[in-house]
């Protein structure tokens, strides 16, 4: 398992809590809070793009 530095959980409504993390190799990680051993990973640029697009409403159709 990579050496991941996790941020504090980001919680929306109820129990929908996620954590973002990074490692020293420039990778970004997303996990459900409390299940950090199961994560998605990509580059920091890809995570930045994902968050920017979500804030811009590009994923609203999924809600």
Characterization of this structure:
By secondary structure, the protein is of the alpha+beta class. It has one domain (11-62). The chain has 1 helix and 5 strands; from the N terminus they run βββββα. It has one helix spanning 44-55; strands at residues 5-6, 10-11, 17-22, 27-32, 39-43. It starts with a strand and ends in an 8-residue tail after the last helix. The relative contact order is 0.17. It comes from Streptomyces millisiae. This is DUF397 domain-containing protein.
List the helices and strands and how they pair.
Layout: E1 5-6, E2 10-11, E3 17-22, E4 27-32, E5 39-43, H1 44-55
Antiparallel strand pairs: 1-3, 2-3, 3-4, 4-5
Provide a brief overview of the structure:
This protein is 19% helix and 33% strand. It has 63 residues and is an alpha+beta fold.
